[in-house]
Every structure is written in C-alpha cells, then in structure tokens.
Request: fold
Amino acid sequence: MFSLYINHLNKYLLFYGVSLILFSSVSHAAAYQSHTSIYKAAETFLSAHVLSKHNNQATVTVGKLDSRLKLKKCNKRLQAFLRKGSRRIGKATVGIKCTGTKPWSLHLPVTISVFGDVLVAKTQLHKGDILSASDLKIEKHDLANLPYGYIEEIASSAGMKIKKRIDAGTVLTPSMLKKPRIISRGQKVTILARLGRMQVRMEGKALAHGAAGERIQVMNLKSRKKLEGVITVNGEVKVDI
Reply:
C-alpha cells in the first residue's frame, strides 16, 4: 500500500515538474519580441514604400537576426523606417523600433531586387562601330546588379558610337557609348541664326570638333565674327543673336 502511494506521488511530482518547466518556457518566450514579427514589420513597410513604386517588378529578401538576440516584447505596434539617404535598391537596411514602455531599436539587413528592361548587345561590337537597332536586344535584369548604369530604350542609343569592344550579351552602359562626331574643326558649316521669329542661314567654319547637342565655336566667313552655338542633328550650328 505504501509502495503504491509512493509511485503515485512520484508520478504527480514528475507531472508537476514538467508542467512547471513548460509554463516557465512559454512565459519566458512571451516576454520577448518574436523575430518573425520583426521580419513581418520590415516586409510590410518595404512593400508599401518601396516595392509599390516598381509596379510589382521587385522582390525583398530580409536578412536573419542573431538567434541569441532577445528584445523585450513591445506593447505598441512596431514601427519601420528608412534613414534619409538610404539605398532603395540592392543591399540596404531597414530600421525597426519599439516606442512602447520598454523601447528598443535595430537595423535589419535587406536585399531589394528591382527587375527592369535594359539594352544588351546582340552580337560582339567593336570600337568605332555605329550602333543600329539590329545590334541590340532588350532583356530583363536585376537593376541592383548594374552599378555602372544601364540604357532602357533602343531609340536613345541607335546612332551612337562604340568607345570600346563590347561582347555579345553585355548590358550596355552610358559610359560605353558616345555621340559620333558630325563636325570637324576647319569644316565649312551652316550657321543657323535666330533673330526673333526670323531664321537666317550663313556660311561659317567650325573652330572645333563636335557631336550633335554639343556647343562649339564657329566663324562667320563673311564678317569673320566668332560665334558659339549648338550642333543640330542635321549638322548645322544653331546660334542666338
């Protein structure tokens, strides 16, 4: 009889001990902010303030916190923020803070990938080549991986001159291209002068090399007067008098 009583007592004490441990563990966990809630706050904020501006052509990967990090559970809604000047593409950080009775703040690493259409060389291009639409194709790339820039439209690059060899499949950047020279120093040019609503054309001489859109000096061959103007796509030099 006494042995049976001892067995029941041992089972009771074992059950009580296990229950106490479980209750203590649950209470301990409830006292701290879950990492999942911090990740969720970051994702919600970035979705509203960053991803929405890229027509759903973007994704966010949230970095992981140290599993040993324990923050007091916030009694207010977590607030997320981006510091002024923070990157909004590629590797960045988003701030998460608690403004409750036991405030805290941290910065969470995130990777923001934005996908867009960019120009790519369809075939190998050589220095000095003039680009045509047939040399190019459009592909979708992660813009975060293009730190040297990119070009979006074929129309804006057709007719440009290649500055160095470009291999097939390479994403084109502005630094790879330049406007071709359409006027050379000493060349005879047409000077297009605007006088109010009137336009007057005069014969002149270029005093510098130039491409469309660039400013150069020219000389009016009749008056020998030096003028400065902008080269038009037609190879004329437009000046204001």
